[in-house]
Input
Amino acid sequence: MPGRPHPLITGEIYHIYNKTINKNKLFSVDFNCEKFMEDIWYYRSFASLIKLSNLNKLNVEFRKSYLDKIVCKDSFRVSILTYTLMPTHYHFILKQNQDNGISNFISLIQNSFTRFYNIKNNSNGPVFLHRFKSKPITTEEQLKHTSRYIHLNPYSSGLIKDISDLGEYPWSSYKDFIYPSKENICETNQILALFNNDYFRYKKFVVGNADYQKTLEMCKYAEK
Output
């Protein structure tokens, strides 16, 4: 199997994405999305030494001290800058914080979700393609435009019919950018800093390209 066309370098930022096998619509089911988001939250930390499925088996006092380490940013193997879950695939913008951080993160979340899915559906085998895709993001312009592309996916694919409803799509970090909250899983500061930390400017940047991206998406599928 050919190797990755570029190394994943600590301190650098990448667009990471992968598809389900046979275009299985895993993320059209809210319960599956909720589970995948739990995996994302948990396994971004290198302190996650216990399987997520075993977390509730810990006694209350130990679990609290353990979770305090999980949520500490100093323990994050990756910083999650954006994400979107689509029925048959997912997108991230990730910053790698330690060597092999991205590869370990993706492996852990996919393996955890696969175990959950197979047990729930009395099945076996992988549910995601073996090798995730990665594209380096090396400029501020790339970072802005890739974040917009990822956030517009629900609209350009037709999942969201009205662009004004994009912020209500639950499985995307777009809401984290336009409805800031301490509970957000994303570290939005790096992208919002490119818009002078103005949430409205970022929203205008995304929405202003919505119909163009939707047209490109329609043309892409028309050519197949």
